[in-house]
């Protein structure tokens, strides 16, 4: 907030003062002996200018102080509520009224959007539960086909039904994206049991591609939300199955240190290009591999990262094209979990 901006803002006062000086000089010159009074008029003008400069200096100081904190808050994108003008001048009252009106409008708009989002989420939840009924019927039909000896057809139907179930559950999780924290129940969970459930529910993926699965050292207890941790692990395991070749290999291992329990999911699939690895958690990013398979939505890992941020566990990834991809999910122990959640 420099002097030039202040002078530009106060040009009417300056022009008005100069007009007053000019009129005063004209009146004095026309009413007294010019030769005797010229020096007095000059001194009077100097006095006027000196008084006016003092007035400008005081007014500039007030002007600068009233705006510099607000300008700093705006530049730093801080909360500006404490910098709203509190004076009784008409312009300050109008500014407060305008801000109050805009805040009210934004609040009403936010509440309207929130209500619409809740209605959409309710619809999606109902739709998910409704769609699960015909999917269950498909599973029964697949069992019947298997009993009748149509093993190949039954196998294909089961695989597609499981894929639809996975996608339907992903839609349900996405619909809860705006209120993850309200859906969390942090408890002690056995990691081995969690991983085994994921593998069991995705076993047909392993069987269909004849994937070699190696699991070990998973008997640890972690503190997390069981349902969302299951989702994250399933998403990574599902991706591993998707991107490995037939007769590929997936290893799921656990380890423990003083601060955390680390779950490692490794596969020898196509790998992630180096240019994509920093973006795999971005919303809607499919990358080179996703474009090759045409089955990627770019939302699964995005949701995983959102959940990890909310539950305060970390997901690390390393990869080399055509060699391997390795995800590490780092679950903090209870004392460290509490430390992280308080940060």
UniProtKB/TrEMBL annotation:
It catalyses: ATP + protein L-histidine = ADP + protein N-phospho-L-histidine. It is found in: Cell membrane. GO terms for biological process: cellular response to phosphate starvation. It is a multi-pass membrane protein. The keyword DNA damage does not apply. The chain crosses the membrane at residues 12-29, 41-61. One of its GO terms (molecular function) is phosphoprotein phosphatase activity. Its main location: membrane. It is an enzyme of class 2 (transferase). This is histidine kinase. It comes from Acetivibrio thermocellus AD2.
